[in-house]
Amino acid sequence: MHLVGFLQAQNCTIYASSWRHPDSRTDFLRADFFQEIGRILEAGKFDLGFFDDRLSMPDRYGADHVHTIEHGIRCVKLDPVVTLTMMAAATSRLGLGATASTTYYEPFHVARCFQTLDLMSDGRAAWNVVTSLNDGEAANMGHAEMMAHDARYDRADEFVEVVLGHWDAWEDDALILDKASGRFGDGHKVHRLDFRGQYLSSRGPFTVPRSPQGRPVLIQAGSSGRGKRFSARWAELVFVAYHDVQDGREEYAAFKAAVAAEGRDPEQVKVATLCTPVCAATRAEAEDKAALIERLPLEIDALSLLSEALNFDFASKGMDEPFSDAEMAGIQGLQAIRDRVVKATGKRNPTVRDFITGSGRGRPRLDMVGGPKEVADRLEEWFEARACDGFVIAAAAVPAGYADFVTHVVPELQRRGLFRKDYTGSTLRDHLGLPRAAHGDWRPRHAAG
């Protein structure tokens, strides 16, 4: 199975309450904070550490940011790529993934940034492709409003094509470096892109040669119908949040079929589902830890994060006031959250309170709590059922949550033959069981789409 550390270059993890945990470090503005996480994940032979990111702090609730700062609700957001370079310097095998938006960045910049990171880390980089999701991000990046959902993905299709085209600009043997003849490279083996589409254009030639793994790995986490089609077309590693084994099996099978329909090998696209294991030497100790974690989240955490993710001000409605049909249809953020709440509550028009309880926003799902055996049993159940290819491990305390998992659960997975005992290669593609990216190998998938 594959293991991914879910990271954020901010004052807390995916859980806004994590900074309040007594075992969490609060020196998140120092490189060593992230380097320690990197060292822990590498000691556990994780495939990669991955940084989620957004381009604004949560300020949709009440159209104000004061509550965000007061409660530490994901308000500090460092640049994830710069943060990754600090982690790269403290590790030698751990893969390094970061988020960059196709809605607000330019493809040449993203291509250069991640290919440079791939070279500087000896082939360990990955780009998480996102389209961004709320008006706060649009405002920060100089736009009056967010693009429509499907239009963002249409632009993203062009964006990824441009990035991959630039990454193909240099053939593997384009560099010569012959001082005697004075010949630096073969100019006929570096190609201009000359791309012109509906949304984007980019000329080239690209300025960064190919890396040890050919090019960075592409990560995606689209959860809407359009997002899943985008993932099936482009992604090599997909992050999901399946909620039980049976649903996971069905979703996993459907997604792999969609990958095959794009003319791609489903076994070359890895699917990892999000989980938050709470583990210790014994089940009793783990249950005590879970009880503490459960006390940390606040109602304001959920309200703020729901407003951010759904691009709707939850302060505009009473706690027990149902959403109208128009409001439900108008949600333009993470629509999968809306759909999950409808399914969980059985209500077509849930209330604000229903959204809090049905989404679980801001609260860890404490469904993997136990000693090494209990947690490993759950992971093995998911993996052997073909509900996923691996797991995105989130922590409720940093770095303690990662350290607990590496100390208690990884050895048990290794004992069962479910996880590697050591790295067998040096690049991220090696860890994921993906071949080195060949020049032009992405084009058949585009043509098939």
TrEMBL record:
Residues annotated as binding FMN: D53, T99, H149, Y153, S223, S224
- Gene3D superfamilies xref list: Luciferase-like domain (3.20.20.30)
SUPFAM superfamilies to which the protein is assigned, alphabetical? Bacterial luciferase-like (SSF51679)
Keywords of the record: Flavoprotein, FMN, Monooxygenase, Oxidoreductase
Domain Luciferase-like: from-to ranges: 57-385
Q: Which domain of life is it from?
A: Bacteria
**CDD domains tied to this protein:** Nitrilotriacetate_monoxgenase (cd01095)
Question: This protein is called what?
Answer: LLM class flavin-dependent oxidoreductase
Q: What organism is listed for this UniProt entry?
A: Roseicella aquatilis
Traced from the root, the source organism's taxonomic lineage reads: Bacteria, Pseudomonadati, Pseudomonadota, Alphaproteobacteria, Acetobacterales
